[in-house]
Write a structure and sequence with these properties.
Elements lengths: L7 E5 L8 H5 L4 E2 L3 E16 L7 E17 L5 H10 L7 E6 L5 E9 L3 E2 L8 E2 L2 E4 L4 E3 L10 E4 L5 E2 L5 E11 L7 E9 L17 E6 L5 E9 L8 E9 L3 E10 L13 E2 L9
Parallel strand pairs: 12-18
Antiparallel strand pairs: 1-2, 1-5, 3-4, 4-8, 4-9, 5-6, 6-9, 6-10, 7-8, 11-13, 13-16, 14-15, 14-17, 17-18, 18-19
């Protein structure tokens, strides 16, 4: 396996229909950001001993402990994965949450567990604010090894976003097209997407319909290769800078892509203009 650098950890509040890799792959995953280290994954059996008066000591396997994750994370209240982790760690929440760990090789470890605590660490003036929750794995580890991954795994691409002039009232719709290159796979792939402000002049929630950042989820059904993602920009009468936002698309078992959109001010002279870009991040391989 080599270095742990590049390992990712994600949670899902949705549990799989069954405990197979295919069932887990269909879940909507939210990656947890800012992780410095994770902890131990994998079963350790309790040891039961009996020493008869005559003969050798007998040793037997008891119940299995599937591991304890104790991630140390840079505290980030805006990170969606950390927000879900906090929900799981609430003392009143006794629900199981699905977990997914992807190693740099692309190998995957799925399980389910419960989060215990959300202790936030405040150290010296030159230290970062961190949080150190505990996630106890309660279900058998489902392994997808590197050898099980296809030589040419599916990949995802995301189209550029056309600039939008906001208008004074109502909303202006925008879309992006997600294209799944199946490379021979005919399976289903769940995806989720979200929009956030980005850049020097980031858009905020009030720039979008309903006053919230748009988000959504869906599934590429067997054989489907394209999906259209749609959202609406809210018009206003405020003179302001051109603003930028980031569309992030994550397809479970395939990878993540991003594209940047621009909201053009039309209520006065803007101090700058920003070009539209599409910025594709590195894929992580997964099973077909």
């Amino acid at each position: 396996m080599g270095s742990a650098s590049g390992t990712t950890f994600a949670l899902s509040a949705t549990l799989p229909a069954g405990e197979t890799a295919a069932d887990y792959a269909l879940l909507p995953w939210i990656e947890v950001g800012g992780i410095e280290k994770l902890g131990a994954i994998g079963p350790v059996s309790a040891k039961i001993e009996f020493q008869p008066l005559i003969g050798a000591k007998q040793k037997h396997k008891g119940g299995a402990d599937y591991g304890t994750l104790q991630p140390n994370m840079l505290l980030d209240d805006e990170d969606a994965g950390q927000a879900l982790f906090r929900i799981a760690a609430d003392p009143k929440n006794n629900d199981l949450f699905a977990s997914r760990t992807i190693y740099p090789s692309g190998a995957i470890r799925y399980s389910q567990g419960k989060a215990f605590g959300w202790p936030e660490n405040v150290d010296g003036a030159d230290s970062a604010l961190t949080v150190s929750p505990t996630f106890e794995l309660c279900k058998e580890i489902v392994r997808v090894n590197q050898a099980d991954l296809p030589a040419n795994p599916p990949s995802i691409s995301l189209s550029a976003i056309a600039p939008a002039t906001e208008g004074n009232t109502g909303t202006v719709g925008r879309t992006a097209t997600a294209t799944l290159n199946r490379n021979g796979s005919n399976g289903s792939y769940a995806f989720n997407w979200s929009i956030s402000g980005t850049g020097v002049r980031p858009a905020n929630a009030s720039d979008f319909a309903g006053g919230v950042f748009p988000s959504g989820s869906g599934t590429f059904g067997p054989g489907e290769t394209t999906k259209t993602i749609s959202w609406s920009i809210q018009g206003d009468l405020l003179p302001e800078f051109d603003e930028s936002y980031l569309l992030t698309l994550t397809v479970t078992g395939v990878g993540t892509r991003t594209a940047t959109g621009i909201i053009l001010n039309d209520d006065g002279t803007s101090a700058d203009r920003t070009s539209v870009t599409a910025d594709n991040t590195t894929l992580t391989g997964d099973m077909a």
